[in-house]
Amino acid sequence: MSFFSMAATLGLTVPEWLTPMRVLNAILVAFVLSCSLFAQTVDEVIAKSVAARGGLEKIKAVRALRMTGHVSLGSNVEAVLIFEAKRPGMVREELQLSDKAIIRVSDGSSGWSLNPFSDNPGPEPLSPEEMLNMEQKADIDHPIVDYRRKGYTVELAGKEKVEGKDAYKLKIILKNGQVRYDYLEVSTALSMKWEGKIVLQGKEVNAQSFFSDYRDVEGLKFPFHIDSVTEGSDTGQQIVFDKIEINPSLDDATFRKPALPEPTQKPQ
For domain 51-255, which architecture applies? Predict the structure, then answer.
């Protein structure tokens, strides 16, 4: 029974302003207003996160970034990691293991990988999916900063517990429709967790990363400890950064197609 038929049955008089069309209009207005308020809430959470990291002015002042540390790959295997990024959209990852280096690089429009441990060491062009991953890594600001300008959509998907702490869950929809989730600790507004899909050996798999040990670097907060779990992998990955440099001098050539190293000459 509708409100109006129920009112008639009970002998109630429905005021003129409460006609079906006016009620529908009121509902639509309320819906639009609720969406607007929800969007403002998302932007408020993002604003808190930006402030917690050091503020928008300091974030935008970062033109280049170098992060140096080591990666634990399980089974007592450890490698040196050098991550470099430079505006606009350039990124390079170098994993030094023994006397060899695995390199993934993008100049913002094209990308390549070089893996001396594979049957085809390269350099091999990165797939569109891999390029999308590199684009996100090259985003010094973080995807939620200026997300509308980037063509992204960000939604506040409620709160969840992450390692026993309350966290805002942000759903980020990228330009191509790919979805990732970022979790910001409620008390600090700093990122605690990321989850989404990555391309591993040509296959798209689910992955998660947990961020901790935030430290101040020239007025900006960075996590110095990252634990990652990838679907299909028996072992996790732990990254511990030893040094983070803001605005180091990085040549654009660093982000271009890498060359195979010259073979070591054996002594005569």
Answer: Clam (2.50)
